[in-house]
Write a structure and sequence with these properties.
Layout (H helix, E strand, L loop, with lengths): L8 E7 L2 E8 L2 H15 L5 E9 L2 E8 L4
Amino acid sequence: MSDGDDERFHLLLTAGGRPVMHGWWGKQPTAEHQFLSWIGSWGSIDGARLVLTERADDGERMLASWPEGT
């Protein structure tokens, strides 16, 4: 995976198990900033869950989730 990949970090917001919105970023600091921003903006939605993942050559790995432990 190249460092210049604009779709390396994926952020997904779900509510009630259904996708609500998502975004892709090429840089980890930007994706992490958006993760925190989305918690503040959308965390009050009933059943909201956020998952930040990183794409790699062998699949995806979770970097963060909110609420914690989900």
